[in-house]
Amino acid sequence: MVRDTWANFTQSDGYHANFNVVAAQLERWQKPGDVTDVPKFVYGGANASNAVSSRFLYRGDYLRLRNVALAY
Question: pTM of the predicted model, to two decimals?
Protein backbone atom coordinates (compact mmCIF):
# COMPACT_ATOMS: atom_id res chain seq x y z
CA MET A 1 0.00 0.00 0.00
CA VAL A 2 1.09 3.55 -0.71
CA ARG A 3 0.02 6.52 1.40
CA ASP A 4 -0.44 9.89 -0.28
CA THR A 5 0.83 12.29 2.40
CA TRP A 6 0.40 15.36 0.18
CA ALA A 7 -3.35 14.65 0.12
CA ASN A 8 -3.49 15.83 3.76
CA PHE A 9 -3.08 19.32 2.34
CA THR A 10 -4.81 19.12 -1.05
CA GLN A 11 -7.83 17.10 0.11
CA SER A 12 -8.45 18.33 3.63
CA ASP A 13 -11.71 19.45 5.23
CA GLY A 14 -10.58 23.08 5.20
CA TYR A 15 -7.98 22.88 7.95
CA HIS A 16 -5.24 23.65 5.40
CA ALA A 17 -7.36 26.19 3.53
CA ASN A 18 -4.36 28.13 2.20
CA PHE A 19 -3.30 25.23 -0.05
CA ASN A 20 -4.69 24.67 -3.53
CA VAL A 21 -7.10 21.76 -3.70
CA VAL A 22 -7.67 19.08 -6.32
CA ALA A 23 -10.69 18.88 -8.63
CA ALA A 24 -12.01 15.88 -6.66
CA GLN A 25 -12.91 18.33 -3.88
CA LEU A 26 -15.82 19.46 -6.09
CA GLU A 27 -17.44 16.11 -5.25
CA ARG A 28 -17.44 16.94 -1.53
CA TRP A 29 -20.33 16.30 0.83
CA GLN A 30 -22.78 19.21 0.67
CA LYS A 31 -26.22 18.10 1.85
CA PRO A 32 -27.89 15.15 3.58
CA GLY A 33 -28.20 12.21 1.21
CA ASP A 34 -24.93 12.90 -0.66
CA VAL A 35 -22.86 9.75 -1.07
CA THR A 36 -19.16 10.61 -1.21
CA ASP A 37 -15.88 9.99 0.58
CA VAL A 38 -14.90 13.67 0.38
CA PRO A 39 -15.81 15.57 3.57
CA LYS A 40 -17.63 18.88 3.67
CA PHE A 41 -15.21 21.79 3.30
CA VAL A 42 -15.29 24.21 6.21
CA TYR A 43 -12.74 27.02 5.99
CA GLY A 44 -10.37 26.57 8.90
CA GLY A 45 -12.28 23.45 9.96
CA ALA A 46 -10.58 21.02 12.28
CA ASN A 47 -12.71 17.88 11.94
CA ALA A 48 -9.55 15.78 11.47
CA SER A 49 -10.69 14.37 8.13
CA ASN A 50 -7.09 14.77 6.97
CA ALA A 51 -5.67 12.76 9.88
CA VAL A 52 -3.75 9.55 9.31
CA SER A 53 -6.28 6.97 8.14
CA SER A 54 -6.97 4.59 5.28
CA ARG A 55 -8.59 7.42 3.29
CA PHE A 56 -5.35 8.21 1.47
CA LEU A 57 -4.10 4.64 1.01
CA TYR A 58 -3.78 3.37 -2.54
CA ARG A 59 -2.69 0.13 -4.13
CA GLY A 60 1.03 0.12 -4.79
CA ASP A 61 1.41 -3.04 -6.84
CA TYR A 62 1.89 -1.28 -10.17
CA LEU A 63 4.29 1.16 -11.77
CA ARG A 64 3.20 4.19 -13.75
CA LEU A 65 5.67 6.45 -15.53
CA ARG A 66 4.81 9.80 -17.02
CA ASN A 67 8.23 10.79 -18.37
CA VAL A 68 11.22 8.55 -18.88
CA ALA A 69 14.67 9.62 -20.00
CA LEU A 70 17.36 7.06 -20.66
CA ALA A 71 20.90 8.24 -21.29
CA TYR A 72 24.43 6.95 -21.11
Answer: 0.49
